[in-house]
Amino acid sequence: MKVNIPKVTRPIRLSDYAPEFGEQVIEMWVNPPRKLRLAFADITDRARAERVQIAALAADEDALDQYTKDRSDPDKKKHQRDFAANVLAAHAEAKDLPDDEKAERLTAHFKHTAEIGEELNAWYAEMWSQGEDEWTAEDVKELAEAALDTDPGLWDFVQESSLDAMQEYRRRKKADSPGPQT
Q1: 21 lies in a domain?
Q2: Is 8 part of any domain?
Q3: Would 52 be classed as within a structural domain?
Q4: Structural domain that includes position 50
Q5: pLDDT reported for residue 62
């Protein structure tokens, strides 16, 4: 191939979340190959499916009432309405299971969720290791746990900013480079 496509990264400035973070930055790889973008979609789809099953198995009457309201609430986002509808459908299938079988299934779904979380940590580690810093899945897990323990909004910010950087790069007009010369 005559054109070398470089790995492009964009900084996630933690000071954009809170100025107290100073100059701390996470470099996000914004032009990964399709295989890695599809892997992320697969991981998040499987995580969502596990959350549906857990919510369905653990739902009490109050939760079911709320899911019933959310399913048709026009003020809810589509993914929230879909989640509520999926939980209600899964609950209908699981409601007559014996308690010990529900507990066994919950345990299995929690285990799958943890495994998916490890995959997601590895995915972020790869995305954040294309700049100057080298990240491991364990580093990502430590950041997530520390943030969720002390500052849950930080973890949301880091994840959202990482994905936003990738989407912005893919959507932007390549105005930085001159067009064809006539």
Answers
A1: no
A2: no
A3: yes
A4: 33-170
A5: 84
